[in-house]
User: Fold this.
Amino acid sequence: MTLVAIDSHGHLQDAAFDADREAVWDRAVQAGVGVIVPGYTLPTSEAAVAWVRPRPQAWALVGLHPHDARDWQPGFADRLTAWLSQERVVGIGEIGLDYHYNHSAPEVQRAVFFEQLQLARRLNVPVSVHMREAEEDTWRILREVGHPRGVIHSFTGSWAFAERVLDLGWYLSFSGIVSFKNAQDLRQVAAKVPRDRFLIETDSPYLSPVPWRGQRNEPVRVIRVAEVIAAQKNCRTEEVLALAMSNTITLFSLNLPSN
Ligand SMILES: [Zn+2]
Assistant:
């Protein structure tokens, strides 16, 4: 089946899908939606790698989320490196900084983000970054490491921050938040972002777009995200889906299934 869209960030390995994971994935495949499944802990990274293996329209990322940065151990870099040698394991994520919750201490978050970003640069693989209320420190670390391949996932930052990361060669990814009533500033960012530098995602099972806000999210709803962006860019939804897919393929060097 030909792909019409790629959900660049959907946690299909999450326990929220334990009861009906195959039905959720069937709906995505029927709609022509592929998915990139990021890990956020070591077990969920391993689960992502295993889940995508038999599914040609699915790819995995491996990494330790800022919430869990306190769990980092010296051997983790080797585990990530080993997974990255497997087929359709295409990058490191999600990693980053979250000063909203501070589930791990900020200095621990910074050290673990820095280490995983350095690893990505050394291996020349792209990264997916989670950033919440941490623009200055995220920017400082991105600039310090100087790795030109990455995306700020579920972007909610300012246009000033967007311009900085775009200058570094990075991408912005929009989630269902772009459809929320109070997200006018984010819709302005979507209107302005260059056509060759944005991705779309669901962040399933979180962040369902309107009119499903508050419900469990799933990859097919990435099409709704594209509709909202199309309205901002005054173009057709199909065009946004095609642009975002092409940008996702470029950033993550994806090989598409051939049939
Ligand atoms: Zn996520």
Remarks:
- The domain at 5-252 is CATH 3.20.20.140 (TIM Barrel).
- The chain has a mean pLDDT of 96.
- The chain has one domain: 5-252.
- The pocket of zinc ion is lined by residues 9, 11, 38, 94, 203 (CB under 6 Å).
